[in-house]
Amino acid sequence: MNFKSILNNYQEQVNLAISKFLPNINDVPPRIHEAMLYSLQAGGKRLRPILLLAAYNLYPSDLDPLAAAVAIECIHTYSLIHDDLPCMDNSILRRGKPTNHIKFNEATALLAGDALLTYAFYLISKHYQHVPQIACKMIYTLSEAAGPSKLIGGQIEDFHHETTSHQDSSINIYEKLDFIHTNKTSALISAALTLGLRLSKVDEEKINIAQKLGFHLGMAFQINDDILDVTSTSASLGKTSGLDQQNKTLTYPKVYGIEKSIKKAQDHTHCAITLCQELGGNNEFLLVLIASLENRNV
Length: 298
Description:
The chain has 298 residues and is mainly α. Helix content is 72%, strand content 1%. The protein has a two-stranded antiparallel sheet.
């Protein structure tokens, strides 16, 4: 298996699908479509749609997974646009380019994020309406992962910690850190794997394994992301480094230190690999992808 070639092929599939499924930049009103596409086409690893495609290809079916892959990238990109806003992280750089509110303005960035969030569900309902039971389960999975108990719930707890000057000493900081990233990061990664397998028409036992896999993979990814924010430069990351420290963000290196954080990331990666092996199917690419994320430097 040529891992790099398959990875590049998945990325190219996603990029072409974005051009196919998103409105044209000149469609009326053009400014909102330009802002949506600016962030969506700014690059990035495309990890979540690639995980969806990799999960689907464990047990391929007659359904096309690309619309779902674009949908989950729309959700992820919307969350980045909103995270970067002045009222949140106030970041000026994302994927090596000025953030959406810097390129356009704050109101346009806010609406571009709203539009991408909404468009994700439009894509799934439109392209999978001929399999309504699967479409309904996919919408449920994605809306739960992106909603107030998961992604937004993790974000509000993260933001609340940053903006509360006097921290409640009764709060278990370890549990709070895990809560934030179980929901802010792992939930959407778990949803990517789940959506891919929904389109594969597998049984619920495999769905449950995929959800656990997504949790461990998401935690490993987030811990490594926290470490990179401390150890890397803005140029190498493609986004503003050091913001976690500047914004008093609750991170794994801050709570555990670098060495223990690395160990925790390794433990989560090991669990993810074990679950991927249990999942079976054409899992060679997914196994290598999981292992590669542990050693990434961007």
